[in-house]
Amino acid sequence: MIMPEIRDKKKSGFYIGVTCPACGAELEIQENFFVLTCHHCGSAMRIAMPDSPPAYIIRSKFGPVEARFHLDRHCKQNNLPLISSGISLQGIYYPYWKANAILLKLRNRIEERPVAAENDYEQERTIQIKKSEISLSPFFATFGAGPPDNVIPYSLGMRTDYLRMLPYSRENIEEEFRRLPVLKNWEEIENNLQKNISGISSVSQADFGKNRTEYFHPRGSLVYFPYYIAEEEISGKRTRFIIDGITGRVTSASVDDHVISLSAATDAVLDFGRLTVEPHRCTNCGIDLPKEESLVYICRNCQRLIVLEKNNLMRNNLYRAGSLTERRERFFPFWSFRLSDSQRKEMQILFGGIYQSEFLVVPAFRIANFEAMYRLSKRISSALPQIALEELDNFGSGYGSVTVGPGEASALAEIITYRERLSRFGPNQSSPTKFLPQEIFLFFAPFHLENYFYVDSVLKAVTFEKSLA
């Protein structure tokens, strides 16, 4: 089914167009939406992400007639002969890989600090202090995956974060368009990503030692972007024009006989996942679950625990730290990983005397600032041995949604451990290791607001910025 284009100037962000599995009505889901209600039949639905990289398609905003207008304007502005009236425009969907990851940067620099003179006769002097700064940040990039061409842009830049997309399917390809083959698989892109990220370290020279840049938790998706293509003989040279199917921007270049034809190559062997929409209901009694985005629910009808991301190490019970003592208390979710004896000993060395726990704790709610997530994880991990936990059988008011699953939290735990190892021992004696917990459970900790910070209501010791929530 070809979906009509919806142009809403108030909307921004990444959009996915789908149809309701209950009644077939059209739905539009923003990426940060997890659950929605079908306005036609009232069914509650949620997005189910595939295990393999998903594929999306961005449909053009205009047809061949308007594309011809953009081409004529480009020729006039660049003092080129006008294109003949018989030229044909072919719509193409060019594939790009979009890669998301978490970036770790180690930067070595020397800081000069003034030293006060001991008496009036001495001149002020400076001393040099070596400092190694480590930071975590989100990273994403796009890479061309189709036939090589000297006109089509190699990257889409930031555009994939705000353009409306549809799940890739033959039905969503417009009639005047054809899809170009994918020549690079995700493994090739990961290799290119490693090279690009390694080059980031050389942008700023280290004052001592070597800078280091590494990425973790890479995720890929394929995006088909619309272009119009035309070729014309101009001044004895065959010239290819590419018209951006979203903005109408035109680029051109001379085409020699050695350029691979855009239609000559064949697809690489790829296995793409497809987004689906499924009923958002309790698997035990069938009642609709709450609409708030979460990976963990307790059914309000039968009190069944519903966990959308399965993990064999996860306990079947939820826990709460402390009890409700303040009116405006909020309970934030955290994943707790029970460590092996060897991991526990390493954590005690890495975190120092403040860490006497057999658990490493990671926030189960999404925090865009990875450095802040890292600090909160250290604080709550060190505090957990002093907090009594009790079983939780229902969610009351003020309980936050679980938006980070155990798989992603485990990847973050691996990054946290490696970052701490770098801080303690330096890059020469540190390397990332696989994080292998013995057990996982979810608990909720109460926090209350004090000015610009949330303060835990049990120990009054763990804090994080209000903006992170």
Helical percentage: 10-25%
Number of strands: 22
- The radius of gyration is 27 Å
Euclidean distance between termini CA atoms: 39 Å
| Count of DSSP H/I helices | 5
Uncertain runs? 1-15
Strand content: 35-45%
Described by strand count, sense and barrel closure, the largest sheet is: 10 strands, mixed
Structural class: alpha+beta
- Residue-averaged pLDDT, rounded? 81
How many domain modules? 2
Coarse shape: globular
What is the succession of H and E elements?
EEEEEHEEEEHEEEEEEEEHEHEHEEE
What does this structure look like?
The protein is an alpha+beta fold. 16% of the residues lie in helices and 35% in strands. The chain folds into two domains: 64-254, no CATH class; 308-468, no CATH class. It is built from five helices and 22 strands. Strands 1, 2, 5, 6, 7, 8, 9, 10, 11 and 12 form a ten-stranded mixed sheet that branches. Strands 16, 17, 18, 19, 20, 21 and 22 form a seven-stranded mixed sheet that branches. Strands 3-4-13 form a three-stranded antiparallel sheet, with no helix packed on it. Strand 14 (296-298) and strand 15 form a beta hairpin. The longest helix is centred in the last third of the chain and has 20 residues, at 406-425.
Strand and helix layout:
Blueprint lengths: L14 E5 L6 E5 L4 E3 L6 E5 L6 E3 L6 H14 L12 E26 L9 E20 L19 E4 L9 E3 L6 H15 L11 E23 L2 E8 L5 E5 L21 E4 L16 E3 L6 E3 L6 E8 L8 E9 L2 H11 L7 E5 L6 H14 L5 E4 L13 H20 L13 E12 L2 E4 L6 E3 L4
Parallel strand pairs: 1-8, 5-10, 6-9, 16-20
Antiparallel strand pairs: 1-2, 3-4, 4-13, 5-8, 6-7, 6-10, 10-11, 11-12, 14-15, 16-19, 17-18, 17-20, 20-21, 21-22
